[in-house]
Design brief:
single chain; alpha/beta; D-Maltodextrin-Binding Protein, domain 2; 2 domains; 5-stranded mixed β-sheet; 15 helices; 16% strand
């Protein structure tokens, strides 16, 4: 799926012509040394989609040429804004010649910090890396909700407190799924560094690790917890779709290389604005976004499956809230002992979060995606699940607290 070959996913793009007037229009909105995107109109060669179209997405647009930008992705469904920004021409209309590349998720932070890529959809996994000096900057919150903590159905674990002395599977140390578990452990009065053992497995192997007893629970991005729940091999402990405070927190942000922010601020602004516009468009056009993403083979799923997944995410880009949530994550990591004792979370957030654009204010037509969408049960076999049945009787009431999402699976068959 992902590869380190930078040319594999590159597609030809049209290079906009640079004029002195356009350059000055773009560079004229400078605040604190950071250039902001200027205003002009542009059109896309991509056919207009129903609802909000590429042309009607609010926000400044630049016709200045800012040159090449390398944007990376790992192939997740929630990265739809990256794919739409490319395919709908949002990057191009911000003056960028974009090369889109697929990389392994575990290499993204290092590639961004090393300047091998210019930007991407970045998770909160970057906090510790930024504390350690990696050249990563956050320029906006992008979307919320895509992680679950589940425990083996036969383990007797029904709450975070029951995890004491147990092993929890994650896909990478320091990732957001682990951070959220540590946060929950701390809130439950447990030592997040000593009372639970974390073990790393490839995402497709997490359910099997529970079945073999190698771990008793796992925390991961959908769809892997959804598959396991559908198989009745696990019960849900919490999710970022349903449970406070996690459901109100951005999980993914716009990440830009520090060198780009400091040396090419107009490019940083353009990348950020393109992804914000694309996220807004996805929030209004999930089915059309899924059609484009599947047709271009960015994500190996059917249109119907991907549409259902996109409806789970709250795509409301915001700079100020992004910084506030980054700060909250940093405070949690300091609280649980992951950050250094002398690290000031506020100073870390001030360092990490760079304001390169004005606040993105969508039109009044945008509505926050707060409903829990049904995950079509008949599509589960496509993800190699053994069964398309979910039990939501009284005996499962505790395990499925606030999980209308899974009960909806049965109704969807």
């Amino acid at each position: 799926m992902a590869t380190s070959d930078f040319d594999q996913n590159a597609r030809p793009v049209v290079k906009p012509l640079l004029s002195r007037r356009d350059f000055l229009r773009y560079a004229g909105f400078v605040s604190g040394g950071l250039a902001l995107a200027a205003c002009s109109s542009a059109t896309s060669n991509t056919p207009a989609a129903p609802g909000v179209t590429a042309a009607t997405v609010p926000g400044a647009t630049s016709s200045a040429s800012l040159g090449k930008a390398v944007i990376a992705y790992a192939g997740g469904a929630c990265e739809a804004p990256t794919f739409i920004a490319y395919e709908h021409g949002y990057f191009q209309r911000e003056g960028l010649e974009v090369e889109l590349v697929a990389l392994e998720a575990s290499t993204l932070k290092e590639a961004l910090a090393a300047g091998k890529i210019d930007g991407l959809q970045q998770t909160a996994d970057s906090i510790k890396a930024i504390e350690q000096g990696l050249g990563i900057r956050i320029t906006s919150g992008l979307h919320k909700g895509c992680i679950r903590l589940v425990a083996g159905a036969a383990t007797g674990i029904k709450s975070v407190a029951d995890l004491k002395g147990k092993a929890v599977g994650v896909h990478v140390f320091g990732g957001l799924p682990q951070v959220l578990v540590q946060w929950a452990l701390s809130d439950a009065g447990l030592d997040p560094l000593k009372d639970v053992t974390f073990k790393v497995f490839p995402p497709p192997q997490l359910e099997a690790a529970v079945a073999k007893g190698e771990v008793q629970a796992f925390s991961m991005y959908d769809p892997f917890p959804a598959i396991a729940l559908n198989n009745k091999s696990v019960v849900q402990i919490f999710s970022t779709h349903d449970n406070a405070p996690y459901k109100d927190m951005y999980c993914c942000f716009v990440g830009i290389a520090q060198g780009v922010v400091e040396q090419q601020p107009a490019k940083a602004a353009a990348i950020t604005l393109a992804l914000q516009k694309a996220a807004y468009w996805v929030s209004q056009n999930q089915a059309e976004a899924a059609k484009i993403v599947v047709a271009k083979k960015y994500v190996p799923a059917s249109e119907e499956l991907l549409t259902s997944l996109l409806k789970l995410y709250d795509y409301v880009p915001n700079v100020a809230q992004g910084k506030a949530h980054f700060l909250r994550y940093a405070q949690v990591l300091k609280q649980v002992g992951v950050l250094e004792a002398d690290t000031d979370p506020q100073k870390l957030a001030d360092l990490a979060v760079a304001t390169v654009t004005p606040e993105f204010v969508p039109s009044s037509a945008q509505t926050s995606n707060t409903t829990v969408a049904a995950f079509p049960a008949h599509l589960i076999p496509e993800l190699n699940a053994a069964s398309a049945q979910v039990t939501c009787g009284p005996e499962h009431a505790h395990a499925h607290t606030q999980s209308r999402f899974y009960c909806d699976l049965v109704e969807a068959v």
